[in-house]
Amino acid sequence: MKKAKNISALFCVAFLLCTAAGSVTVRAQMQQIVDDAPPPLAGQEDMLAGDRFENPFEGGTGGSSAPAPTHFTDSEIEVLQSLAQRRTNLERRERQLAQREALLSAAEVEVDRKISELNQLRSEIEELLGKQSTEQENRLRSLVRIYENMKPQEAARIMNTLDMDVLLDVIARMPERRSAPIMANMNPERARQITIRLAERSRLPQVAEE
Description:
By secondary structure, this protein is mainly alpha-helical. It is about 75% helix and about 0% strand.
């Protein structure tokens, strides 16, 4: 058994020696082929060195040509010019619309401001009218009390000369038991006009029939 193992080991060593010897022999043969090759012809050294060849994938210009210029027909040029003009018109139109929108916005702000001012002014006027109406009502009430405390003949004599609107306001605020004796002593035509005007004031407005 031990003898068989020794024989196997000897075979392995012999195989390795043969392999190494074969590699040396192959290398020697390749070197001999290179040495026996004829020298390169004139110009082949530069070609083999790559001086006259450029890699087209390395970005060189020797193996590539410039792209051919693009040529347009007259109709294509006309279409391009038309499109450019249309774009210019659209941009100008857009600017005009933007300016109009800005003007409208400014006008709206101004209108809102004016409306606010008018509302404030209306409130002030209504307040003044309310105060004036109150003061006027107080003055009329004072006149009514004055005429009520006068004798009917004296009150009638003065009322014959009063403005009709003022006279109507005073008579309308007097009780009937006070106004009747005064009107009885007034000018008959004047008393008739007062009666007609008071009736018109108390008449309700008629609704138009459909």
